Inverse folding.
């Protein structure tokens, strides 16, 4: 079988060559899987995952242009034949790249049939093959998700569709997805509600839709428990696109929703920075916020351009950003069972097969640099101690009472009457920025 | 006393003259306070409020220019003399305009002293006068708020300041603010956390700051209960400005925060559409979302320009927007004890004293038109029945089970196996838009 | 042949029924083609045009979902058979709607072949039929354009492609497009440089690309003159999407480019408001700016949502916006030979065939209301005289010298030395807004 | 005199200590003024300039808060006494920092009087002192500009004011500004039209205002020639803020304006990246575009936050950005007589006097790193040769004819008929990004 799937024939397993020059873009210069930092291997801090849809199903079509990416694995007599060829190619790629995880939608891996039953049969056949390839290669599923947005039936939403028949279809599809997650040992299961929102407020009953979405999630939780599926559930926020407004706007919106419907113990968040910036936040914002609320489950490591108003799903290349993400990840003790999933696609103009490698290598190196920087920041402790000192007043006296919740307004007033005006303390933002730059 | 405060001498009480021509901008053409719509007077649906800070304290200074607005009520020998003259002028204005409510910050009404004690004494003296003027004119306080952002001590935050001494000062100030609210019979009390957020993530301990903010609110709730203050607490979301990131980003962020810290039964939201649009939402979005979650307490009726990235606090003039707001307000049964507060300022180039009247009249008429439109939409029921029909599948069968939370994934799958693919149903957005236009 | 093309069988010619109720969305309530306003028929002020690509070629696919719109005119045995059926359907639609113009790309009307020669033969055959249908119905071509962005060959640009072979292909295609424009009597010819820009500054030689684009336009001008084509050339600005940056960013960018390369006498602009708002301007901005510079040729009458960062090409429904556009159009004496082209698509969820009518009717009525409003504003002259009065100082004395360019800094200084500080004059923005609202 | 101005007493001249650790933020780690790169000293490539208004006149006030920065040089008995103390402090700062240039507005350096004559006298007295300090220290004026936006008389614009009296005042002020520029040997003169635009389209005659602005510039050019002033004129684009729309929106808008009014030979552009990003472009965009059109005169080296919609004027700290700017600067042969002016302010929370040093040092080091990176990129030539290869087709055959403007559409068509479909060429964006990262 090896021969027929050797689609990246010219490309050997990617080595780590730390001193490679600028033009040598088919080796790692920073990412060294086995190297230990802060007591953990690089690959365990970074837990990279390749996404199946962009990298193996993407065609390069955009709203203004047709297919540009013609992949050899898509040449087959039937949809199922292509699907299998594609899966082989993907595992060849994972292996050569040295990535231990992949992620997929049910409908990426396996073609949708004309009935639910046919779709499920296709999925059974394909996941049999996937399981076999997982065992052979050691590559595992970081997360599975169900595609509840691409088929025309979902045009008005899935769990929030005004027609309960569509919601039922989504439920049936997710039921199968959960079975597949169990079968393949997925470590997480993601819900991205691409069409759970609205295009026009005029035709939408928001209250009804939110309740339906909550009830949908409750059924999902019940079924997960029933089948003994152990993976972590994750919701992936996005503010808009394709919808005008998506209910899972950003980390805090999802946290508010989950808490309102008492679902918060069953879900964490999968944060995609390109979605975060579309919601008007800075790159690292939702990773930080989710982490602070104990809800950071996984990260879709990609990037957009701050001057563009749509999701471009570019490979993350900015060391400043990767440093900020890895600092947060280290501070919360790692992402496991989550990881860093490359929900990123090569540009539609990047038509060479090698571009798929170059893009992943460039991004993995960008994260490896980010990790190394974050480790140095944490190990040297300069920033940490500057911050600790800044909040020191909460460790004693009236500050401690505020901290532990035992103070009252009357006590605060008494404190001010005794101590008068607070002294001025510089925030020293430029000093922090300058020190931070030292580590980049 | 009447003579000395007659600062709007040339302007009589604003009449309602429905057929006034285009140039006549000193009368109402649409707002008729006593007219009854859907069983309630216009003034009870609209509950307009004038904001003290923009309309009576504003100077027209902006980050690139000095004062342009030179108000006669600011000419006085001492700050307290000015403050009193200003308050008289304001009540003259409220009365001539025919608005029954006003809103203010503690520091608008009364100059800050060099100590907390002096500030409190000033506030006592000023609120004695305010109470007197309220009784004389029948004008009431829609809400009070404490200014916890303008003084330099708050530059790094109030309840989220890294220095607990500053937090204590904020607590002392709010304690007095609550006393004032009780004294003046304020129907609501607003918290706008203008500096509760960060300018740089590098120097900020987000987890600590959020906890301090929650503990601060808990003290405030306790003191409110202690003094028997009956008003509604409101939090006003804003995404950014002056901060780079404000914790109360938008309605859902605040709801998430309140639920996480179990504060949600004590607070509702005061939504400002200019803040909503800065958070990347449509004009009416947060009003709708807050209402859906049962958290809409009041509205700061203003507008921004969608092409500008900062808060311009313009008077709301777009009938489409006012119609959407009033439709939501009617559907939730009104805003009481909240209202429509004109958190809006005349442009700094609008230097004539009459511009203050023209702006309020134009905005009140815009809301009166919005109310009339919304009433017609609701009374005729065309849109309502279109929406109802759209969600009809949830009123019976499997839909009803989803609605009441008794369905399971297995049942949904069975339903699909029996009923196959859902039928295609047009969302008919353009029809909704066309019908909506009919009412504008 | 009439029978076989009767695809909108249930829908008769759209009547004008000014007092139709809210639910009756299949008649005009405001647009009355023959009615005369300011000495010109409504249809001559409005010069509506249906766009072929969205309304007849659109499938409803978006970056996250598959086709939703299954049109009967796309069911045929061969691409050419479909193309002809589609064209018949389109003319049936134009006629029933009562619109006199249409616009199209070469590749919408006629399928691309495997060679340039085959594509050209297809286009010849299809335009023969188009000409026949134009003569039979009286419907005319507002403008033609060449699709230089959808085929994968154009992925890196057409006139700005780094490979001159692609530029040559674009040139050959435009040559044929100009021949077609002449054959069909197109009144304008549009260039939209969707891929003339860059995705990454790193791989781009901006100076070279701009020069190539200019030289390309010079060849186009020469060929137009050679064949005696009389139509107006138009460039359509767009800031981004699909590119990260498009050279024709907005009206002023194009004007700068045209003047730099001395092409400005040969081109005007086709302004699309959805592109204008994506460039950070207000809805009417580029229409106004192009008009002021004598460069407003035509308008793509659509709209986006200000909270979305991509081109949604919605039907324009906001009366405020249509009023602003029509006021500018009237002030420049009309758009002829340009028009109001509905570069707008029904939402992908608007799957009923009637939605295509409803959307156009709603938008035509929105423009008819805008026209009526603008006519009233201009006829009553209130706003005009307020503005005239505001600039009166330029009609005499030192102002007149500034106006005619004969003043000097020395004279300005002398004037100030004699006259001192200028008096304060209110900008009265709220008054203007209130008066403007009177006409909506 | 030295003693009385020693306001930064604790801070010695900033040394270059390349191996200083993270906490040592009062020395340069990368900027070494005398070091030669590509045949030029670092200080000649970088030509840093300190801006007077932010760094010496800034108070820390923002639209939501009062003064936070209390500078010792602002403590004086009279405005003129303060002004002198401030100027001494500034020259002490320039000298200790080792920066050779400064920039200022007329009204920063010298207080506005109650008449033009008094203002001019103040300016004469202050510039006498400035000249003395320039001679003593060797620090020079990079550029002067007139503040035509802060005084209330300019609220409706200066050269575009509807009242010609205001325009006359602006003209008189600029006349004096040009005299001052000559006196102090300014190398450039900047025009930033902060209020040249509009707040409301309703009250604005755009055509008239643009013409007045052009005529104003023509007078300015004439006076410059008359007095034999040799400096470069620069226009600084900004899209909005304080205006809703500023006519000098971005580089291309200004180029379009200048060419339309035949002013382009007299002006270049001063590009501020924080303005560029507010116009919806990427950080380096306008620097690149201005350079390509031969119009890049100078750079206001600052930054904003991409998630904020207003001008924050932060110190530039992102090495990626500084590398892109310096690459463009080197490619056009340097910025002289322009430079890199720190139009940046310490955050209002950065209240320590040393923060002013830290901010400048951090930014200068960021630019020094950018310069070193850009030099390596250019010297190694990897990127350059990749780009050159990409456009190679224009160096021969049909490509060369396109390049030199001698090709025709007919020839392009012939070429395609002979050569068929172009081959697919990957844009290789990820490769470029990965290679670029190698140099950061």
């Amino acid at each position: 079988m090896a021969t027929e799937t050797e689609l990246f024939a010219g490309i050997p397993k990617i080595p780590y060559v730390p001193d490679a020059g600028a033009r040598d873009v088919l080796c790692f210069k920073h990412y060294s899987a086995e190297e230990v930092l802060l007591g953990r291997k690089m690959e365990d801090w970074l837990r990279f995952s390749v996404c199946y849809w962009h990298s193996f199903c993407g065609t390069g079509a955009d709203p203004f242009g047709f297919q540009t990416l013609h992949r050899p694995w898509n040449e087959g007599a039937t949809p199922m034949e292509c699907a299998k060829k594609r899966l082989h190619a993907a595992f060849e790629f994972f292996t050569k790249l040295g990535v231990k995880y992949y992620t997929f939608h049910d409908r990426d891996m396996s073609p949708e049939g004309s009935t639910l039953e046919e779709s499920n049969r296709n999925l059974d056949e394909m996941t049999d093959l996937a399981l076999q390839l997982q065992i052979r290669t050691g590559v595992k599923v970081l997360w599975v998700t169900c595609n509840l947005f691409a088929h025309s039936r979902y045009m008005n939403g899935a769990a929030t569709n005004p027609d309960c028949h569509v919601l039922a279809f989504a439920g049936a599809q997710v039921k199968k997805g959960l079975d597949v997650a169990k079968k393949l040992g997925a470590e997480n299961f993601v819900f991205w509600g691409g069409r759970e929102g609205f295009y026009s407020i005029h035709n939408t009953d928001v209250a009804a839709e939110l309740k339906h979405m909550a009830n949908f999630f409750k059924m999902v939780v019940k079924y997960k428990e029933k089948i003994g599926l152990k993976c972590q559930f994750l919701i992936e926020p996005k503010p808009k696109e394709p919808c005008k407004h998506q209910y899972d706007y950003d980390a805090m919106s999802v946290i508010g929703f989950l808490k309102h419907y008492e679902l918060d113990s069953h879900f964490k968040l999968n944060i995609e920075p390109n979605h975060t910036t579309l919601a008007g936040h800075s790159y690292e914002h939702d990773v930080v916020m989710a982490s602070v609320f104990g809800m950071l489950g996984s990260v879709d490591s990609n990037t957009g351009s701050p001057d563009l108003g749509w999701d471009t799903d570019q490979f993350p290349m900015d060391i400043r950003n990767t440093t900020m993400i890895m600092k947060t990840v280290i501070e919360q003790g790692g992402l496991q069972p989550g990881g860093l999933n490359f929900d990123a696609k090569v540009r539609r103009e990047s038509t060479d097969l090698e571009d798929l490698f170059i893009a992943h290598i460039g991004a993995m190196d960008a994260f490896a640099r980010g990790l190394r920087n974050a480790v140095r920041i944490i190990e040297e402790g300069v920033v940490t101690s500057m911050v600790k000192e800044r909040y020191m007043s909460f460790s004693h006296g009236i500050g401690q009472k505020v901290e532990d919740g035992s103070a009252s307004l009357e006590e605060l007033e008494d404190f001010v009457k005794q101590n008068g005006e607070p002294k001025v303390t510089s925030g020293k933002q430029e000093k922090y920025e300058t020190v931070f730059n030292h580590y980049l």
Q: What stands out?
A: The mean pLDDT of chain C is 97. Chain C touches chain D through 102 residues (CB under 8 Å). Residues 107 and 217 of chain C are 20 Å apart (CA to CA). Residues 353-380 of chain C form the longest helix (28 residues).
